[in-house]
Design brief:
Elements: H1 3-14, H2 24-47, H3 54-69, H4 73-98, H5 106-122
Helix pairs in contact: 1-3, 2-3, 2-5, 3-4, 4-5
């Protein structure tokens, strides 16, 4: 999947409200930010004993799809493999929330994505 395809896919879930993005780095950053926001909402719902908002589960799953499909395993090597594993963990927690499992590990997923987002924002080319 190209970055243009990823941006188009994610925009569909946002009804076209994403800003115009110029670089692949920005596309990944906005996707990570939106995923993090959804995980915050889901963690809060879990903490309050409420149902998980379906819209945030869907946005989260879409973001994971975009992030996983944008990895370059040939150039990224071990880092790409590790990111894929973290994204897969997050995806499984979102699926558990969608299926209304008792204990999806949404707070842990949120922490992992927050760490990746922070690292991503500190990389050269971030803004």
């Amino acid at each position: 999947m190209s970055y243009l395809d990823a941006r188009t896919q994610y925009r569909r879930t946002e009804d076209g409200v994403l800003p115009e993005l110029a670089t692949p780095h920005q596309i990944v950053e906005i996707t990570l930010r939106e995923l993090h926001k959804s995980l915050i909402v889901l963690a809060a719902a879990h903490g309050d004993g409420q149902r998980y908002p379906a819209a945030h589960v869907t946005k989260g799953l879409t973001a994971i799809y975009v992030l996983q499909s944008s990895l370059d395993f040939e150039k990224g090597g071990e880092i790409a493999q590790n990111l894929f594993s973290v994204y897969e963990f997050v995806r499984l927690q979102l699926v558990a929330a969608f299926q209304r499992d008792e204990e999806p590990r949404i707070p842990a997923a949120r922490t992992y994505i927050a760490d990746i987002l922070s690292a991503w924002q500190s990389m050269p080319g971030a803004k």
